[in-house]
Design goal:
This protein has about 140 residues and is an alpha+beta fold. The protein has one domain: Nuclear Transport Factor 2, Chain: A (Roll). Helix content is about 25%, strand content about 45%. The strands form two sheets. A six-stranded mixed β-sheet has the order 2-1-6-5-4-3. Strands 7-8 form a two-stranded antiparallel ribbon. Strand 7 and strand 8 form a beta hairpin. Helix 1 packs antiparallel against helix 2. It starts with a helix and ends with a strand.
C-alpha cells in the first residue's frame, strides 16, 4: 500500500529514529543500495548506504540530544517515488549548551512493494523565511 499517509508515517519514523539516535531503526528505513544519497547541513554529498550509515554514526557520536518539530510537511507520490519536503525545527543540547535552528529538508522514498524506503535526505540550514502572516516580510529565526 503506497499511500500518502504511509509515506508521511515512514517519514515520521525517520525523524523518530534520528531523534533517538537509533541506527537499527535507520537500517530498517533506508534502502541498502549504492543509489542512496544524503546531504547533512554543511556536509558534502554522501553516496551509497555504507557511507550514509557511517555518516549517521558520526552524527550520533556527537552526543548532541536533538528534539524535532516538523512543520509545513508536504508529501507527494509519483509512481514508486515519494517526495516529502518540510521544515525541521530542531532544539539540541550538547553538554550544558542548548541551541535551536531550522532546516529545510527534502526526503525521497522509493516504494519496494511493501513499504517506503528512504533513498535521499537533504537538509539545508534555513536562515530566514517569508512570513506570509506579515504580508511577505522576511523573518530571521
Amino acid at each position: 500500500m503506497n499511500t500518502r499517509d504511509s509515506l508521511i508515517l515512514q517519514n515520521a519514523r525517520f525523524y523518530e529514529a534520528f531523534e533517538n539516535a537509533d541506527l537499527d531503526a535507520l537500517d530498517s528505513i533506508w534502502l541498502h543500495s549504492q543509489r542512496v544519497r544524503c546531504i547533512h547541513p554543511g556536509w558534502d554529498i554522501i553516496v551509497g548506504w555504507e557511507a550514509v550509515r557511517e555518516s549517521w554514526e558520526r552524527v550520533f557520536a556527537s552526543n548532541a540530544a536533538m528534539k524535532f518539530s516538523l512543520r509545513n510537511v508536504a508529501a507527494e507520490i509519483h509512481g514508486k517515488l515519494g517526495v516529502v519536503v518540510l521544515i525541521e525545527e530542531i532544539v539540541w543540547r550538547s553538554g550544558s549548551s542548548v541551541e535551536s535552528g531550522s532546516v529545510l529538508a527534502t526526503n525521497l522514498f522509493e516504494h519496494d512493494g511493501k513499504t517506503w524506503r528512504m533513498i535521499h535526505h537533504h537538509g539545508s540550514p534555513l536562515i530566514g523565511e517569508k512570513d506570509s502572516a506579515e504580508g511577505g516580510s522576511f523573518r530571521y529565526n
